[in-house]
Amino acid sequence: MSPLNGSNITATATAPSRQRADLDARPIAPPPKLRRRPLLVLVSVAAVIAGALLAVWAYTASPTTHEVVAVRATIQRGGIIDRADLMLVRVTLDPALNPVDGSRIDALAGQHAALDLPAGGLVTDDAVTTAVVPAKGQSVVGISLPPALLPGEPLRAGDDVRVVATPGEQGEVSAGEQRFIPATVVGVHPNPESGQSVVSVQVPYAAAAELAARAATGKVALVLDSRER
């Protein structure tokens, strides 16, 4: 076997070192720089703004949002509707509701409430009527009564009542002599100065004169009958 050549050993040992030196000497390329395109940024911002405006327009122009009539102040059944008692509101309608359209608000003034209309509630066609009070063949009589001769339950328009003759200070009245006149409450008007309330009731035309005469004596009481219908 021939002896190893020293020069070959040296060349073999130094070859990897030269390769590493060559690699270290190579310039390192910097990472690529991201170039911003102003036009693309502007287009993106404009798209976002346009989307927001479209969403707002879609909400305000939604076909399910309508302007309807609502009650500003409570109106009792049978009461006359005043324009000041009404207001316009915009709501998303439920298919089960049928409120009066806002364009008809002025036409409701002067009509009568067919039902009790609480403040904040929506007005429907069934809740108003053009019926005149008193109706044909009927009369309205006002009865001034102290709290002791009124029911403890607050009276409401539309209540069925009986106006009963009382003996006052003259003595007792037997059952056979008891006299009453059926009526319907039209309105209640408290008088803080006298402490009494004037109850307006509707009765048949033929009974109006007798009721007025009895009410003038102050010897009547008012009885509230069932509200069940």
Please supply descriptive tags for the structure shown above.
single chain; two-stranded antiparallel sheet; Type Iii Antifreeze Protein Isoform Hplc 12; about 230 residues; about 25% strand; 4 helices; five-stranded antiparallel β-sheet; alpha+beta
Q: What does this protein structure show overall?
A:
The chain has 229 residues and is α+β, with helices and mostly antiparallel strands. Among the domains are: 65-129, Antifreeze-like/N-acetylneuraminic acid synthase C-terminal domain (Type Iii Antifreeze Protein Isoform Hplc 12); 138-224, no CATH class. The chain has four helices and nine strands. It has helices at 6-25, 38-60, 105-108, 205-217, and strands spanning 65-71, 86-92, 112-113, 128-129, 138-145, 160-165, 180-191, 196-204, 220-224. It has a five-stranded antiparallel sheet, with helices on one face. A two-stranded antiparallel ribbon has the order 1-2. The longest helix has 23 residues, at 38-60. The chain is elongated and about 120 Å long. It starts with 5 loop residues before the first helix and ends in a 5-residue tail after the last strand.
Which oligomeric state applies?
single chain
Largest sheet: 5 strands, antiparallel
In helices, the fraction of residues equals 25-40%
Number of helices: 4
Cα-atom radius of gyration: 45 Å
Structural class: alpha+beta
Average pLDDT works out at 80
- Based on Cα principal axes, name the global outline: elongated
Q: Strand order within the widest sheet?
A: 5-8-7-6-9
User: Count of DSSP E strands?
Assistant: 9
Q: Which H/E pattern describes the elements?
A: HHEEHEEEEEEHE
The fraction of residues in strands falls at 25-35%
Q: Low-confidence runs (pLDDT<50, min 5 residues)?
A: none
Distance between the termini: 130 Å
